[in-house]
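Please fill in the sequence for the structure shown.

STRUCTURE ENCODING:
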């Protein structure tokens, strides 16, 4: 059973005050197609009025906000939310927080054409390289292998940096 009315936020960020299902018809056994009528679109595009950051402990909140790059006063662009969220998540991965999870949720007030955003971060534990062991490089000097790897004990264990280090080592032909 489908609702007769719901709140619709369009990709442009504009909100409709009312969406009414006007007609239902069955297509094949279980599928139902609904026709909608959108009434009274709000004139101004929704605006971000608030951005809350929850769970940022390892990084200063101001740094996280700069990475997010969505600020109060900005136009609400739904298509920009996931890329901005992903930028924050990647910034944690680059610091060795390989289990970090970041969510970004918007609460729309259609009467005011306003959106409040909440960025929630579950950082997990930072992973660091304890040591770099080299074995089986009998002909190649340790210095050559270390230079190709570019990894040092104590640095954040960023997965993509380790993969790049492996590729650099393979590219040397060792």
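FILLED IN BY: designer on duty
SEQUENCE:
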């Amino acid at each position: 059973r489908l609702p007769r009315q719901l709140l619709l936020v369009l990709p442009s960020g504009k909100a409709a005050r009312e969406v009414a299902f006007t007609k239902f018809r069955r297509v094949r056994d279980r599928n139902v197609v609904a026709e909608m009528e959108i009434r009274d679109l709000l004139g101004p595009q929704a605006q971000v009025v608030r951005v809350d950051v929850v769970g940022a402990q390892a990084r200063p909140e101001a740094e996280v906000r700069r990475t997010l790059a969505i600020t109060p006063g900005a136009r609400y662009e739904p298509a920009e939310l996931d890329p901005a969220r992903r930028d924050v998540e990647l910034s944690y991965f680059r610091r060795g927080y390989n289990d970090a999870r970041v969510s970004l949720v918007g609460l729309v007030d259609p009467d005011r054409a306003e959106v409040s955003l909440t960025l929630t971060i579950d950082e997990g534990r930072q992973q660091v390289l304890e040591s770099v062991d080299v074995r089986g490089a009998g002909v190649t000097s340790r210095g050559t292998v270390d230079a190709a790897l570019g990894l040092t004990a104590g640095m954040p264990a960023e997965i993509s940096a380790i993969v790049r280090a492996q590729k650099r080592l393979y590219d040397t032909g060792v």
